[in-house]
Amino acid sequence: MSTARPAAPRPRSILARLHLRERIRDRDTAVYTVLLVVALVFPLASMYVSDGSTYAVSLAGHAGTYVLLAIGLNVVVGFAGLLDLGYAAFFAIGAYTYALFASQQLAASPAHHAYHLPFWLMMFIGLLVAAAFGAVLGFPTLRLRGDYLAIVTLGFGEIVPNIFYNLDQWTGGINAIGGIDQPTLPWWITGPWAGANDIAITPQFNFSFDPIAYYVLIFILVVAAVILVNNLYRSRLGRAWMAIREDEVAAAAMGINTVTTKLLAFGIGASFSGFAGAYYGASFGLVSPDDFLFIVSITVLVMIVLGGMGSIPGVIMGALLIYGILHYLLPSLPPLVESTASAIGLGHLNARNGDWPGLGNETQNVTLLLFGLILVTMMLLRPQGIFPSRVREQELKHAAGGEDEAAIEHANA
Amino acid sequence: MTLDAGTSATGALSILNRFRLFRLGGMTVADYGFYVLCGTAIVLLATQAVLGPQTFFQVLDFGVADGAIYALVALGYTMVYGIIELINFAHGDIFTLSAMLGSALLGFFAVSSNSFTVTDLIALAVAFPVVMLFIGGVNVTIERIAYRPLRNAPRVAPLITAIGMSFIIEGIMYLWHGAVTVGFPDLLPHGPGYQTYIGGVFFTFKDVFVIIAAGILVTLLALFINRSKLGKAMRATAQDRDAAQLMGIDINRTISATFFIGAVLAGAGGIIYGLYFNNLDYHLGFRAGLIAFTAAVFGGIGNIPGAALGGLLIGLVQAFSDNYIGAKWTEVVIFGILIGVLVFRPTGLLGMRVPEK
Asked: Does this model's pTM top 0.95?
């Protein structure tokens, strides 16, 4: 008796073995993949399109700073549910820590000695200093009700740039700290992308504001941060954060030490900011108190809320989107509007005429208004963010069974 | 750190908590810290008052006038926070917008700035109610568009729309006047006939006007909140929205009314600010708003007399700090006080100890 043996499974292709189809169905993996591919192709593509101009790459490198900040703030606001309105303070602390110990600044100060510590060390020192400040600020205040923390951080965020501004004999005050050391590496790979003819290894590489080098650096930092935060999210600590976010009393009853857990969230969030600050100081070569005002904290908060609080791919997308709007879309609007007006025969509007400042100038005047409109519209259309966290999404669906009318509308939307 | 088995269910009782809740003669250590800080400040100021009474009382006069304006703005923050727990970032810009509207309206009357005439009086009598009502309407519209649809969304969502609204209002003012300083007609009686020295301290009619106007508005508000039916509805909604709704209170109407009244006060504050300082710019409300919000927290957020008191005290702190410490440190002092108050007395000066909702 012989039954037909089932056909031997065909050897699966590499593509099949990667479970590509299943992975693509998982939204987060898909977003990560797209982001990774775009990030890798972007420098080449942008330079190809713009005839070797590295402007877009340097812009992307700066956007990377905000991605790091958003990932860090997401730990505090998205995971642990603590509202931090003074996140830029830790950013400032990281940047100034690097700037002070990697420039000639301290030579003119009462210390009378300039330090030139290496970037790679200072990055971690900036991280530690920012985390320490986070702990010092968080320790007495984290046991307060959620909103009080927001207010304390708001105050802290106002104080820190002011102190850097006022202690001018140490920090240069309004003159800012310039001439900050560039990171160096023992070797580096050059190639056609950097203007060289062949791919070669050069010894003793100095970053010296090379946008490509900074892009590579921030890319590595962001990837490392994403891996780290993803692991944190799934760890015991991450679950404790979520428990606290949902119900602090219940979490405490389950044996979670809420103060320590919240302090960790706050400190870890601050340390990301300090890390990003050191990168910021190096990549611009200049730090000024005006770079860390309340508006920076608000921008980062907007990024994570619009991206989707608690969802890491979401906040990365949010950061890139808002950065793109603020630093690419809005500045490029006036020339765009002017050329459009010329094209459709309204060119006479471009000229200044009496009270009319010209279409280009008027568009520039309207950018603040436009940004506000974009914020309000996006928030009203998707209050949960572009890519909300999966857990949150499930909660909203479950809430539909309950008595909450708004949640029903929400789930049906 | 070990958890005490007996008390862990009530919340995390860390060493810090034990320290804070440790009582000595009926007060916690945090209370002692608070009183020690306040005491030190009072002693330092008293020393100044004895050493240079003239300067001290002059600064006090400026401080009270500033504080009266902050109080008017702080009331709006505290009312909105009390009822929907939203830090209304657009409120400072509502204040600035009303000052600009007032400037335009008074400019329309082409009033003389040299001597106070009947025209000036009529202009003021028209400008105050028109601007106050209009700005109240603006704030109600903002609430309707930007906050109401998000009432059940995550808590941060309305915060972001508030920031967006703040940008929109600032953007409109920027379109209107650009980044330049806008003048405000110097209407109030001023000049040699309306100022006097009492014991070497310089008083002007403007100071008196600001203080009296703010005092009247705050009193009216307190009467309204405590006596009227709508005021009662507001208090009920702030206390427990669901229960208030079950009692037949129209929540949406009550919240709209809160926004309206908050903006009316800010509107009056804006005109008073303009009349007192005579210049403003589109970005004024941002800083003033943050400081007024600090005042609201200082007095106990959600508490109306607290906001008035907090505004007054922040005005004094600002004046004293400008004079005795140096103007560049004033912001550090103000926000330092904010952090200090929250650490030592999270409920503010007059706030009550409310359990977390």
From this structure: no
